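Quick start: what a row looks like.
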Amino acid sequence: MSSIEANASKSASDERLESRSPINVIQLNKLLKLSNPNLKKSQSQSILNDANDDLEIDEPIDHSISALLTQQTLSTAPTQTDASSSKRIHRVVLTGGPCAGKTTSINKIKIFFENIGWKVFCVPETATILLSSGIYFYELGKHTIDFQENLLKTLLQIEDSINQAAKHYYKEKDQNVIIIYDRGAMDPVAYLDEEDWEILKQRNPTWNEVDLRDNRYDQIIHLITAAKGAEQFYTLDNNISRTEGLDLARQLDAKIAKAWIGHPYKYVIDNCTDFEIKIARVLQAVCDRIGLQFKGFDVGNRKRKFLVKAVPEVTEFPPFQDFNVVHNYLVSNSPKVQARIRKRGQSNVWSYTYTVRFIRNDQVVETYRQIDKREYALRRCFEWKHRYYQLDMYEEPCNPSCRGLIILTTRCMDEDLLLPDFLEIEKEITQDPNYSMFNLSKRKK
């Protein structure tokens, strides 16, 4: 049995606690230096500049959001509008079930980015604000849907107000800005029946999943509740509005996870490590998405790609969201740069992303002509055993080299790979340049 097959055949009990990934505690401590609330600015600069320290923070040329532009339907959401600027606004939601480590993670992210010179905004959890007034869901009865509608409207208004302020710092003060949202627009949806959510969308015609989930935020981080895999640490003591027992916490975690399925950059942080490393994994996920790299430090959360032989019947899948995806590759000003526009959507509602990526391994790219090939794919997003997966099924019209390809993508710890047992995996293609999206758009057969 291959290592891939062995990992794919792990039982559900293998999901629990033990970390099988090598963690460099010295490097972890160096990362956490910059999230120390007592660190002075002069000290943080020393950490960044110390040539003898093997912790480095830079703006690598090989990252997928080096020039990310997202067309917004919600006009108040801030975006980076100048692709040539080195500054950016990054919008990250921390979500998950009760007692998952959100508060600790938000504080660590906040202090870390303040210490490296970013302007940080923390958006409080709207539900906690309202519920702390004395409201109880179980007392609302048939009025619960109205409360959730008002909660979502309040959440959007709070976010829009902070988003507007973030634009000021980005555009007029020329600062990097990170906005950390304690839950986001899809969290209230998790507490609604599907029928009630459809009613609210009819009442509010501008509400749809693509805008509320995908266009509004750059990254979603779902922290799994301690009720799944770290039960001995589950507590109700650190949030006066929390009343959920273990079983309800697990149910809510699953509903919230389902509500966010479909976001293109969703990260799932489980309880396979101890709590300190779990928080470091959250911080690293944010840094990875922004493009900050740390020499000599890695907690092992990597993107992996696999070639799939065939797509099973839809009944074999857990709950999923399907998207139509089109990649258009463009002419670049540099022979080492890839540039693409991605169009991604559901029900004729679209998000648009412009990405510039430098090529790895000195791969030569012809830029004197327009690359007119497009990749058309049906992208299926789903969660399975607390992991997030994207399955791309290429369809016509497409380059002949893409025809019939089925590619599975996930992120995982190095030695914690778990592949869906209902998919027949042919081979891993993570390091195979023949299966990069750019090369697939060029190859002809």
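That is the whole record. Residues 150 and 327 are 38 Å apart (CA to CA). The longest strand covers residues 320-330.
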